[in-house]
Write a structure and sequence with these properties.
Blueprint lengths: L1 H18 L12 E7 L5 H17 L8 E7 L9 H16 L4 E6 L3 H13 L3 E4 L5 H5 L5 E3 L4 H14 L4 E6 L3 H16 L3 E7 L7 H9 L11 E3 L5 H13 L6 E2 L7 H7 L7 E5 L8 H14 L5 H20 L4 H10 L6 E3 L2 E5 L5 E2 L1 E8 L4 E9 L20
Helix pairs in contact: 1-3, 2-11, 2-12, 3-4, 6-7, 9-10, 12-13
Amino acid sequence: MAAWAGAILVLIGVVGWWAGSRLAQSPRDNTVRLAVVYSPDEDAQDFRAGVQIAVDQVNAAGGFLGHPVAVELFKEESYTDKVELEKLVAQTLQLATRIGKMSSVLAVIGHGSSATAVPASVVYERYHKLFLATHATATSLSNHRLDLTFAMQPNNADNANFLARWALSQGLRNVVVLSDNSGYGIETVDQFRSLFAQGGGTILHRGRLTTANRSIDDLLLFLMDNDVFKPADVDAFFVPSSATAESAHFIARARQMGLTMPIIGPEYLYSRQVEEWVGVQSMRDVVAVSIYDGDTSTPEGQLLAAPFIQALGHPPGLMAAMGYDAVKVLAHAVKRSGTLAPDAIADNLRISRYEAPYIGASGPVTFDSHGLITDTTAHVVRHDGTRFHTVASYRKPLAPLAEDGAEAPMTRSSPP
C-alpha cells in the first residue's frame, strides 16, 4: 500500500504540472497512428502480430475513413512485485506523455499490466487519446470512469468469480492459495476467497508464492510436510501472481514432486510463454480463464488465424486476439461514427452494445458505461497435456451465486 501511495503522489505532482502546460501542436498528416505499448514478455510477439494483422486488413479495406493506419511500437518495463513501483509509474507517465504529444496518434493499444495502464490512462485522457487496455485487469482501471479508456478483458473480480464458480462446480472444496504481493495478486485472491467461501469452499492455507528468503523448493517442502494439512487434503491450488516466471517454476516443480491436482490461475496462465517454461506435459490440469475460446472460431477469428499461423507457425491465443480485436473494434466504431473525433468514437464504443456490436476473434466486444467489457462470454480453459481446451463458459455479467455453490456453467463442463 505504501508503494501505491508513493505512486499516487507522483501522479498528483505530474497532473499538477500538466495543468499549467499547453499541448504542443504539429501539422497532421494523412496517416492515423496507433501507439502500441507492450512489455517484452507474456506472448508479446503474438500480441504485436495480432495488432499488425488487423491493421493490414483495415488498410486493405480503406483504412479509417480513407486514412491509412500505421502502428508505432513502444516498449515498457515488465511489472512484478519485485519492481520499484514508484520508478515504474514515473517511467510510464513519461512514456504516456510522449505518446500524448504525438498529434497523429488517435489511440493507444496495450500496456502490459495494470500497474502501468492505470496511471497511463489519466495521461491519455488529458491528451485526448483513446486507450484500449488489452492486458490490464485491475478494477480501478474502469472505476475511474474516464471517458476515453476501455478495458478489453474482464477485471480481477470477474476472473476470480469465474474461477471460483468453476472450482465449486467441479467439487473442489479445499484449496491452497499462493500469490505475490502485487495489487494484481492481492485483489484477485481477496475476490476469490470471498466467493469461494460463500459457495462452501475452504482455504486450507494462504501464502506467498515467493519471498526474498524462501525459494519455490522451500515452499513445496512446506506444502508436502506441515502440521496443518497433507497433500492429499488439497483439491487444487489457486495461484494469481504478476510474477509469471515464478508461477511457471512452481507449476513445473510441483509436477516433478508428484502434485498432480489442478493449478488454477487467472488469464496470465493461458500463455504460450508459460507453456514453454513449464513443458507441455507438465501443464496438464493447469486451469485458467480467457475471454478467447481457442476451440471455436468466429468469422473474425478465422480472419486472424490464417495469416497468424502462416506468420508464426502456431495458432493465435488470448493476447493475439486482444491485439487484433482492439484494432478491429476501433475500426468498427470509426466507421459507424463517421469521424476521427475521439469523443464520438468513444460514445459509439459504448452505445454499440445496444445497436450493432462488433463480433471479434474473442466474441462480442462491447463496453458498459464505465468502459469495461460486458455482455460477453468468458471461458475456463484446462490443459490436457497437449494444449488448453475450453471446459466451461460463463456469461458476463454473472447472476448471483447459489447458496450451495452448485451452479452449472453456461456451456460445457470438465470431464471427470
